[in-house]
Amino acid sequence: MSDAVATPSQGPLAMICGGGALPLAIADYVAARGRKVVLFPLIGAADGLPVENYPHHWIYIGQIGKFMRLARAEGASDVVFIGALVRPRILQTRPDLKALMIMPRVLKAFRGGDDHLLTGMARLLEDEGFHLRGAHEVAPEILAPAGVLGSVQPSEADRADIELGLDYLDAASPFDIGQAVAIANRHVLAVEAAEGTDQMLARVAELRANGRVRSAKGRGVMVKAPKRHQDRRFDLPSIGPRTVEGVAQAGLAGIAVVAGATVVAEADKLLAAADRAGIFIVSVPERRS
Amino acid sequence: MSDAVATPSQGPLAMICGGGALPLAIADYVAARGRKVVLFPLIGAADGLPVENYPHHWIYIGQIGKFMRLARAEGASDVVFIGALVRPRILQTRPDLKALMIMPRVLKAFRGGDDHLLTGMARLLEDEGFHLRGAHEVAPEILAPAGVLGSVQPSEADRADIELGLDYLDAASPFDIGQAVAIANRHVLAVEAAEGTDQMLARVAELRANGRVRSAKGRGVMVKAPKRHQDRRFDLPSIGPRTVEGVAQAGLAGIAVVAGATVVAEADKLLAAADRAGIFIVSVPERRS
């Protein structure tokens, strides 16, 4: 949590970018420190990302050799991997020669859950002399501070739901499963797996609409926490304005995240949207196992 | 698991019926033993159930006093609670005077998860001299026997996914959560909570259609197991022909359930549908904790 902030002396930063608003926000924070940023937006994941303010190279996720060549040419040895990424099918990743040579290990990395995929890619990069950094290491501004973040306070009942949610996420953690759960009145409404947080929240809204969730509107909480032992350099949970929208539509009272271990995208917009919707956002201390 | 089968000497059986095909199947099994059956189909849950072959009384789920009066008049002290039930909102349950008198306890029963709801109702009935029986106690024919049930065999990879699924369901069990999980290539695709098994399977089909699940079609398994410590008299997991349909549409290879602890609805139709679709159904031994 208390990693030293990267300094300009560390040379240019290569950012492999998936979708969403986070990659550019982080690029802006890093650039504001005076560090050079080179973007590698992923075709199929970061399409439409306005990358023109930075040197950039569009790549396919399988083009590991191309990435290494370009990053070295830019003088970048630090690499950040950030943004939304749909689990790719190997044959759609356009492996290049370098990737083909290490394919047995790539395949191994792909076979398990998401953590294995990312850990495998990290190891490939490290073996080639690159250093994988967490987005929160190069731009600590993106992490949620402790406490109630907006102007709405969680109730005692909400606190009980939050504790149950954290208990569940602890228990599910060994299974490399999604990082979010929706709970109301101590009743688990929905659990995230491959569908992602936004779709899990949409499900709660739907369950409410068709009568399968009958807790009163404005009760319950969406809890999001990092998996234990996950490599936080590329897989911290994140929330953003869209999360607030999803929580409001799901009829929940608020959002709980883990302080110092959650990325907050577009914090200003997020807090404004939460206050407007009467949604609380609380950032709780991390549990120690 | 080896409960003695109820005999005619035990008097008429009162069956409180939710939706689906199971209630009548069980009534038929019990009646075939020569035991009298009285149905209490629940308005809003069992609507459309063809109950005319049996003495029956339509009731609202809150009408506990009315149920007890009618069941006593029929000479029934054994009660079975069976069929699909949407978690009711208290104000829609039409509490009668008896229910109102015991409302503090009913409210308490409703507050926790499903298990608490059902356990609470069971206790209310027992306190009034009724005996709650499991459907599998009065009609053991409905339980899945051990082994591969259809003609399709699970592969070694399927067996590994099944073990992972059972591990997850064990871990999630204390949270009174859904009883099913979908896994492919040791990757958790979807977890059931309040939405029910059918909707969880529909989600996997959807995730596949929009590219978020990319394992090959015909890989993976839906695992369904009873929660630990749940009261099996009213809450055994069940599968039926619709489950096979959902699994086929989700692109999974098969279904795993726990032998002796899973209700199989319309077994003939289910096995025929599974064989036709190339879906395996395997019933694994129960784990001991």
Automatic annotation (TrEMBL), chains A, B:
Domain LpxI N-terminal: 13-141
InterPro entries according to UniProt: LpxI (IPR053174), LpxI_C (IPR010415), LpxI_C_sf (IPR043167), LpxI_N (IPR041255)
Annotated Pfam families: LpxI_C, LpxI_N
LpxI C-terminal domain span: 145-282
This protein's name: LpxI family protein
Organism: Undibacter mobilis
